[in-house]
């Protein structure tokens, strides 16, 4: 019987990425986790709109115009807020001798670079990097796995 493994793959991949970045996995029914996945899916759809594509070329003009690109920006702010909350929790429980995940390793490097005025190891950079790893990694990896399954299904003789 036909089925679509898309949601399962997105959940599994994003949870693995979460364990590497945040040091923790989410329950598949966790509301925060499902909200993140929904925002990710919504942003993928919104990026296809002409407004969002034009925003990439004319951001200062389109900042003042309504359209789906505004929802994309609001969703990005929600992602950012989520990561900043997790970073703040990590800072409270941080032990430099025992890094748990990517965030702790980044915090260790921030501590090493504390005296350097030209360092790129800041909370803002940590937040952006974390978002990039989560968003880009989830989308590309789950899509690659989906196509891999499709190819295996279409050409079973290669297995």
From TrEMBL:
Q: Which InterPro entries match?
A: Cyt_P450, Cyt_P450_E_grp-I, Cyt_P450_sf, Cytochrome_P450_fam2
- Keywords on record: Endoplasmic reticulum, Heme, Iron, Membrane, Metal-binding, Microsome, Monooxygenase, Oxidoreductase
Q: Which GO terms describe its biological process?
A: epoxygenase P450 pathway; xenobiotic metabolic process
Reported EC number(s) for this entry are 1.14.14.1
| Xref: Gene3D superfamilies | Cytochrome P450 (1.10.630.10)
Q: How does it sit in the membrane?
A: Peripheral membrane protein
What one GO molecular function would you report for this record? Answer: arachidonate epoxygenase activity
Q: Where in the cell is it found?
A: Endoplasmic reticulum membrane; Microsome membrane
Give the first-level EC class, as a single word.
oxidoreductase
Chief subcellular location equals endoplasmic reticulum
State the GO CC annotations.
Answer: endoplasmic reticulum membrane
Q: Which cofactor does it need?
A: heme
Give the family, as the similarity comment puts it.
Belongs to the cytochrome P450 family.
User: What is the official name of this protein in its record?
Assistant: unspecific monooxygenase
Q: Which organism is it from?
A: Lophotis ruficrista
Question: Gene of origin?
Answer: Cyp2h1_1
């Amino acid at each position: 019987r036909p089925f679509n493994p898309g949601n399962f793959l997105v959940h599994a991949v994003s949870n693995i990425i979460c364990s590497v970045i945040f040091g923790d996995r989410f329950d598949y029914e966790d509301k925060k986790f499902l909200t993140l996945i929904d925002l990710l899916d919504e942003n993928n759809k919104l990026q296809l709109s002409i407004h969002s594509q034009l925003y990439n070329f004319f951001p200062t003009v389109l900042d003042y115009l309504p359209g789906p690109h505004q929802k994309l920006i609001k969703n990005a702010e929600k992602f950012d807020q989520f990561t900043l909350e997790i970073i703040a929790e990590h800072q409270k429980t941080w032990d430099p001798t025992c890094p748990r995940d990517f965030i702790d390793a980044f915090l260790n490097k921030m501590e090493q670079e504390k005296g350097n005025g030209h360092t790129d190891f800041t909370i803002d950079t940590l937040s952006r990097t974390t978002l990039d790893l989560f968003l880009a990694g989830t989308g590309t990896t789950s899509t690659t796995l989906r196509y891999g399954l499709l190819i295996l299904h279409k050409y079973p003789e290669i297995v």
